[in-house]
Specification:
Blueprint (H helix, E strand, L loop, with lengths): L19 E8 L5 H11 L3 E2 L11 E4 L2 E4 L10 E6 L3 H10 L10 E4 L3 E5 L5 E5 L3 H4 L8 E6 L4 H12 L3 E4 L2 E7 L2 E7 L11 E6 L3 H9 L3 E6 L2 E8 L6 E11 L36
Parallel strand pairs: 1-4, 5-8, 9-12, 13-16
Antiparallel strand pairs: 1-13, 2-3, 3-4, 5-9, 6-7, 7-8, 10-11, 11-12, 14-15, 15-16
């Protein structure tokens, strides 16, 4: 009715997403698929995608609604840390202990922390595994809540501005850290450090956009598009200062549209607690979410 105003008891902004709607995968090359399987599947408890990239030249490992893509090649190391949520720290530690023998002589390591486990893959990629925590991560029990990058001092305000103005992603910068919302409950985090960083080696992340063409036009105007892949995908490398176009950080972004054939496809996530000794029908799949209250 005209003039009627209803008081709203909810924070409607808290449920808003930006233009970036999916953090689908982190891609790093690995030189040995057997060791990659021992780490990402057997130790971390993830699931190999049974439908795509099932040969010896690549592996896609499911982590909730996201994946690691692990093509065979010279090792690539993300300049930062990928975070995971897994449902049971005790079981995770048991798997990590069992993997020690097979991964001996590599950079593999792990250490228990207050809320989870810090672990390093056989080639140096850092993985931070958290326990489920509704207050921090929502009701997710299996997933990839954030990818954290180590960046140069003074760059985080410009990085946050780049994501807000170029990609339409909500982003903030405070205290030497930038946080960018890239899907429901998933973030890119950029943390300033004085430590010298290695040269970029080609690894990438993949995101999906609702407005696919608008950001492309802005990136193209600045000469930032690095690949025109197909009708549903393009790539760019550099996050730049919008006043000077000077690069602030390099991480390849594989950018897809929501019309991409692979967008939001269902992934098979096994229950890592099930094996041939304790198998029980109906418990093969892992739930990605906490049970209803």
């Amino acid at each position: 009715m005209d003039g009627m105003r209803l008081d709203c008891p909810y924070d409607r902004h808290a449920e808003s997403l930006g233009n970036v709607v999916e953090l689908q995968h982190v891609n790093v090359r690995v030189p040995d698929q057997q060791k990659a399987t021992a780490y990402y599947i057997s130790a971390l408890g993830l699931t190999r995608d049974p439908y795509l990239m099932t040969g010896t030249d690549n592996m896609w490992a499911n982590a909730g609604i996201s994946q690691f893509h692990l093509p065979t090649g010279g090792p690539e190391v993300l300049r930062g840390t990928t975070a995971l949520i897994t449902p049971d720290k005790r079981q995770l530690l048991e798997r990590l202990h069992r993997a020690k023998k097979e991964l001996e002589g590599t950079k593999y390591s792990f250490a228990e922390t207050n809320d989870g486990v810090e672990t390093t893959c056989p080639w140096g990629n850092r993985i931070r595994v958290h326990e489920p925590d509704a207050a921090r991560f929502g009701r997710v029990v299996l997933g990839m809540p954030y990818v954290e990058f180590d960046v140069a001092p003074g760059t985080t305000p410009g990085i946050a501005r780049f994501y807000r103005e170029m990609l339409g992603a909500p982003a903030t910068a405070e205290g030497g850290s930038a946080k960018v919302l890239v899907a429901n409950g998933q973030y890119l985090v950029f943390k300033e450090t004085d430590a010298k960083q290695p040269e970029f080696d080609g690894h990438h992340i993949q995101i999906s956009l609702a407005d696919f063409g608008g950001p492309h036009a802005k990136l193209a105007e600045r000469g930032l598009i690095s690949e025109e892949s197909n009708p549903w995908q393009y790539r760019f490398l550099d996050i730049v200062d919008l006043d000077t176009n000077k690069p602030l950080f390099r991480i390849e972004h594989e950018v897809r549209s929501m019309t991409h054939p692979l967008f939001a496809r269902a992934l098979v996530n096994r229950n890592a607690a099930i094996n041939n000794r304790n198998y029980m029908p109906g418990h093969e799949a892992a739930s990605l979410w906490m049970a209803p209250e």
